[in-house]
Amino acid sequence: MKRYLSLLLALLTLALCACGGETPPPQPAEDLPPDSIYYDITGMDPREIVLTLDGNEIPAELFYYWVSYVCSSLEYQIASAYYTQGLYAEFLDTETGEINWSASYQGSTLGETAREDARQAVTFYAAVENLAAQYGQSITEEDESSLAASRAGMVEQLGGEDAFADYLSKIGLSEDSYSRINRSAMLYEKLLALTAEEGSGLYLAPEEYESYAACADHILLASINLETREALPEEEIAGKRRLAEELLAQLQAAEDPEALFDQLAGQYSEDSGRAANPRGYVVTPDSSFVTSFKETALSLAPGELSGIVESEYGFHILLRRSLWEVLEGSEEQRRNLADIWLGGELERRIDKMEAVFSEKLDSFDAGAFYQSYTEALAAREAAAAADGQEGQ
Hints:
Radius of gyration: 28 Å
Strand content: 5-15%
Strand order of the largest sheet: 6-5-8-7
Number of strands: 9
């Protein structure tokens, strides 16, 4: 509605400026250049369909939005890593602070990576909409009220409707696309809720969690100073190794290994994080645990002990516990695992959907686009500042 209002105001301005002569006939709205920062950059109508996923049509402005989002995130991560840790200097012009989008990254350029990440993001949310329709999930009147309240909160936070419209203009979204993104996020939450609803078709039974995640407790005997990360003297490391072997022998000979494990872990383990995780850690294939720990945890059967596992931290003895016992006591952890599973399930289903991308995206330069986008934003800010000074 606001976009059409701006078009009407533009036509009104033209009419008032016509000094004499006949007023030209108004142009149909579809023939007018779109009022969009993305159109200004690309010359492509932001309403043009660039992806169809099993019949679900996605306009260009949503793709451009995700390109901007991905590039902005990469820019922040690279700059933060460089200025705090000295990393990723190859992606950054240290004199200007600009990102080198043509730099090589994992077999392609950083810009090509951003383009593909944006394609995956827009495809993912299209798949969410498709899957929600398949499972009868839709936006209810209660949801509409919640979305309206959320929008009202955003309007208030930004300082009014005009400021909100300016915000949408800067991120390149129409009101419809802004609403669609929020609806997609809400539909995802509905799908996530189905993973805990028996008979839903997306229900995750207790045993299914064990198929892609593990709960692993461990006894850690550190070979480094855990505060300074410096290696301990060789004699002390050898002593830790002998102690690990002794503890493992006791566990292997015990009638109740789990009960003894609890006792020995409380007495000997040097993992300070165990106090907050007394039953162990939830481990998934993409979790950030050190590789040897993660691979061992996932390879064990519930109730099984590992041998001595070495890592950069020292010597570990792992015990895989019942994951469901942990999840029953933590709704947050169950939800986090269901979230991981649902993301993977959507990706698997995307592979079976018919995806048709516009050929225009094949040669799309995400880096050049993002640079033009940030320059356009800077120009808008400068123009607004100049207008403000003139008005004083």
